[in-house]
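User: quick one, sequence for these tokens?
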């Protein structure tokens, strides 16, 4: 079930074996407020920027509020979720919590023995290189269980391999031509978080992103809101209220689209100022 994820992580391990940083872990998911401390440098973590980032022995990760971070060990191939309000020190093969807890994630866990076919898998380049860039379905919430995931692939023009994961394991694996895929019905559930990976055919470029689905009741409210006509000149306050609601629910992509429409319809209004941003 996790065959592609096993190959993907094996490839990442080879990519990150450079002597500049002896990485012991890779970030596989980030949700909420979290930060990485490396020496004296503190870096806020986000799912839009730091998936597949190397984490080395001596680093520490702290979460605040409901923040969570999932790490995959390059030594054991197991995955662990650092829970809310936690401070975790990273070792070469183990984690140690001075505050809060971390738990093993079976859905992301990998077998300790890799298939022989993986031995010849070689990664070239940078997994964050711009030739493979995710443009939709990243660091956002969605009100639909059939979201459209989009990306730009200027690496080689060939199809990409897309794999979608929940905390329970692989949900979808598919080779895709073009730059988008609408998730089929029946695969996603309400109130869940998902991570998806793209891999070029030559397996020399990777991209990763995460999104979450809203609870069912909230999703229904959003669907009703999106059905409202836009944009009556006498109802700017109502549309600003709707826009604030979308942002408050973490629907970043929908909110950005609605704000762009409002900016065109009300050019005399600074929408960010009107929202108090």
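Assistant:
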């Amino acid at each position: 079930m996790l065959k592609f994820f096993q190959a993907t992580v094996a490839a990442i391990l080879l990519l990150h074996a450079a002597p500049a940083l002896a990485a012991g872990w890779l970030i596989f998911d980030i949700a909420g407020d979290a930060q990485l401390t490396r020496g004296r440098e503190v870096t806020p973590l986000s799912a839009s920027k730091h998936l597949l980032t190397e984490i080395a022995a001596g680093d520490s990760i702290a979460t605040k509020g409901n923040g969570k971070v999932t790490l995959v060990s390059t030594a054991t191939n197991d995955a662990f979720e650092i829970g809310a309000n936690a401070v975790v020190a990273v070792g070469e093969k183990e984690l140690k919590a001075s505050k809060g807890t971390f738990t093993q994630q079976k859905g992301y866990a990998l077998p300790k023995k890799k298939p022989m076919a993986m031995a010849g898998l070689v990664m070239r380049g940078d997994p964050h290189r711009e030739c493979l860039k995710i443009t939709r379905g990243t660091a956002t919430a969605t009100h639909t269980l059939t979201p459209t995931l989009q990306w730009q692939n200027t690496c080689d023009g060939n199809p990409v391999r897309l794999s979608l994961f929940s905390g329970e394991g692989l949900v979808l694996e598919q080779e895709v031509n073009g730059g988008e895929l609408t998730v089929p019905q029946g695969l996603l559930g309400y109130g869940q978080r998902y991570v998806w990976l793209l891999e070029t055919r030559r397996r020399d470029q990777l991209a990763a992103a995460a999104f979450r689905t809203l609870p069912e009741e909230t999703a229904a409210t959003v669907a009703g809101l999106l059905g409202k006509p836009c944009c009556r000149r006498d109802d700017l306050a109502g549309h600003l209220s709707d826009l604030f609601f979308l942002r408050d629910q973490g629907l970043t992509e929908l909110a950005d689209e609605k704000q762009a429409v409002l900016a065109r319809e009300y050019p005399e209004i600074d929408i960010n100022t009107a929202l108090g941003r």
